Amino acid sequence: MIVVAHDSMYAARVEAALHELSGWRIDVCTARQLRGLFEERPAAIVVIMLSDAESRRLLRAIRGWPRSPAMIVLSDDPARFWTSATRTLGLRAALPLRATAEELAGAVRAVHAGLLVVHPEALVPASARDTAVASGTPLTSREREILELMVDGANNRIIASRLGISRHTVKFHVASILAKLGAGGRTEAVALALRSGLFAV
To answer: Under CATH, what is the fold of the domain 2-123?
Structure first.
């Protein structure tokens, strides 16, 4: 296992939490050192415990790697990292920074077994617990799915294909999303979604 932390206090906390995982080798490194260490240990699970900004920068850098590690991110707002884009990169679990030792160890075991781990706090952004938008009208679950795909850069054809719905239905939902967000177009809607913390990366 590789723990990426920006200071020794964070690293020590993760190491202590994972102490019960006997038999596991734990290496600690900075974000800059991760690629070299991962190339030496490509099967290692990577636990990222950085500031949200640093975590996002690291995930963007990993996009350019030939192979992505299986990752667990700890964040004050784990919902910002639980997106289809980050899961495609290799994110397998998103936990709050205050996750218990049992939760962290359980997540590591689950990821090692090939599972995804979603903490309840990763399902709703801290800044938008009720998915409130500019008009005060919440997005439906389908609208959230479509907006997330829009954030990932998908056009209507791709969205329709991925969700198994018609392009006409996608257009209807996009129009509703724009109205609820008070956006003048798709680009503005994506910007508003990212600014509000609905999605990230």
So the answer is: Rossmann fold (3.40.50)
